[in-house]
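Think of the structure tokens as a kind of shorthand, similar to the way a musician reads notation: each symbol stands for something richer, in this case the local conformation of the backbone. In the example below we present two proteins back to back. Begin with the first one, reading the sequence and then the tokens, and try to describe in your own words what changes along the chain.
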Amino acid sequence: MDEKKLPSQAENFSEWYNQLVLRAELADYSPVRGCMVVRPYGWALWENIQKALDKRFKETGHVNAAFPLFIPQSFMTKEKEHVEGFSPELAVVTHGGGQLLEEPLVVRPTSETIIGTMYAKWVQSYRDLPILINQWANVVRWEMRTKLFLRTLEFYWQEGHTAHATEKEAEEHTMRMLNVYADFARNEAAVPVIPGQKSESEKFAGAKATYSIEAMMGDTKALQSGTSHFLGQNFANAFDIKFLDENNQLQYCWTTSFGVSTRFIGAIIMTHGDDQGLVLPPNLAPYQVVIVPIYRKEEEKSRVMEVVRQIEQGLKDYRVKVDDRDGLTPGYKFNDWELKGVPLRIEIGPKDIEKGSLALARRDIQGKEGKTFIPMEGYVQAVGDMLQKIQANLLAKATKFRDEHIYEVQDYASFRDVVENKGWAVGWWHDDAANEAQIKEDTRATLRVYAPAEGEGICFYSGKKTNKRAYFARSY
């Protein structure tokens, strides 16, 4: 570990983030510009995200499958809005095996087209519906400005694709998956997201409606952390996904798609991290507990390590790491695991063994306040309780921070002050794509999602009466 301190969040949040990702060994830059290498510690975090989401998908009836990385270029042109939205980001293969290909192949930017083609083969009758399929995959989008985890040429994600017999069923499923994401974000990642619908300008290319979960980062910028799309019959028409209904009438399916990517790792880093490094939620952390043995003399080592192994065995239901590296001081190890965000540290030395106690240090609370001593008797329950407290505290802290940085606005002057200096703005909004574009040009703030609204109000920008409210913020 590099001894040099991280830049503080206050002095340079962006550089704090970049250095933390590298020094906590989550990821590294690839020799290919704009790509990343996800290191084992980062991949372990992604695996825990996968497990938590995959469990939820299966509970809602989804099954996993795998579709090709290469998509015939002609498929991308079948849905007009879709191809226009993705054209600038496509990576295209023109040669294979030393030969010019008859038809260029697009490297998967998303899979609606290839999956739609397969659904058209598989669906004949209403009895074949619904189809609820998810795949864990990598995708490629040719981004010009990249940032580890947040925006890279190649990234990892899950993409769900479903086909339904009715519009109502498809719309209900779109909202169900949005709620699955919100539940995962809050209860596993301790990220208090705001779910809602995107504006026409911000929706997914080819969708009828796009919904997302929006998270506030530690610099108050917004991060779109997951999306659920109601695709209507656009892709069913383009790819001929039809079925015979109960009355023997031929109908087009209604389809949806939804996705969360490794970008969510960025959300966790920037929601909870501090000037010492990562602060990981226990439910997702690669290691929930690190045990640091402390001894000076060789004769102390065997006794300390004997107790350490007993404690480790007792905590076998948790993800535990024993840091028995030689030649490093306990202080160095403490700093290393603080940088890596391990939720709970247990320190065991000769004095602790004599007293029959364990020293516990919480990552979410700095200094003396975060350190407690517990009796060795009953330590398993105490550690479990402590991890639950840390998880709850992270969500409470992030929710408080979010709520303190959302401001109600009535006019454009106050709106500009908020989005340029303070955080997110929420207010009455009369939908107008031209006005939305002008606000983005003036302030770099975008409409994140619509907010719940009751009754009517006056739009902060146009002064028109409206029944809609919206959140605006600068974003990643």
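Once you have a description of the first chain, move to the second and do the same.
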Amino acid sequence: MTARVGERPLTRFRATDDLTADAPPEARGLSRDGVRLLVASEQDGAVTVEHGTFQALGRHLGPGDVLVVNNSATVAREIDGRLAARGAVVIHVGAELDDGSWVVELRTAPDAGRPVLDAALGDEIVLAGRHRRTLRSSPTLRLVAPYPEPGSSPSASGNRLWKAVESGSGGLGEHLAAHGRPIAYGYLRARFPLAAYQTVFGTIPGSAEMASAARPFTTELVTSLVSAGVVIVPVTLHTGLSSQESGEAPQPERFAVSRSAAAVVNAAKAVGGRVVAVGTTATRALESATDEAGSVHAAAGWTDLVISPDRPVRVVGGLVTGWHNSDATHLLLVESVAGPNLTQAAYDAALSRHYAWHEFGDSALLLPDREVGELSRR
């Protein structure tokens, strides 16, 4: 299932560069759970917005509510290299596919500030070592097809994502483990260690980029939530590379929902508990295991599910999330959970209070009052 190219969210706003969180909160004098939390809730059509810090999340959840979290841990998937006939590039490496090929994106050196869109079929990239030196054992990647298929990039300037195969004496996975670093983008003021890109729930390595909605959680906060009767349920979704272009659908990603996770969610729904997903990744995983009647089943494999008005959420009734760009397909998912009116109110309030954007930024808790799956494009 794919989103229509060019499909856009209803929510309208303009975020400026000065709202970007250019470093982890710890580097800005805050604790992980000290980032701001905007709580937007809806009752009988009336929207209420509250402002606080993430430490107070438990005030807005009750006994029997379920937080669905992603337990995928972030791995080092950024590496320097040289593209034949072009020069230095930064390579972002996404999923390893079933046929042994890899999903890659080429970006401008040295800070991965922009995508390289003029690479061509058959181009080769020689990977560098930890200090940008080409090693004798460095793998070489060859671009063999646009990913996920020809024409899947909305850009008229060229292709962003590629399917690549490796050659050379060193394996790509081993090379990344030895010389790779966390994927980062040009808006960050410095490089940060892999530990800065992990969440408290991340126990299964596999995500190319951090499942960032869960980053503000701490062990102490989780303990207080559990002690208050909030149930925390882990699912797995190994994130691919971020959707960077307007109208670009999320890529297929590996996911797993266990039988026990499905049972807990179904039981909570049966007694009126609210199922709150922590992030778009947990939402995608859980909804990929949900049938048309709203029952969750054990499931695993690749998901190409795109949550949008064409396929709204069926079980998720609330969302902990960061802030997404106005043309991002992730915002379609947010609107599917929260509805366009609540989403618009939340973004208007966040902009007026200068909430911080991107993976190290501030957070939102969105709690609609309607039945899930009833979103209309009004």
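Compare your description with these statements about the second chain. The first helix runs from residue 172 to 179.
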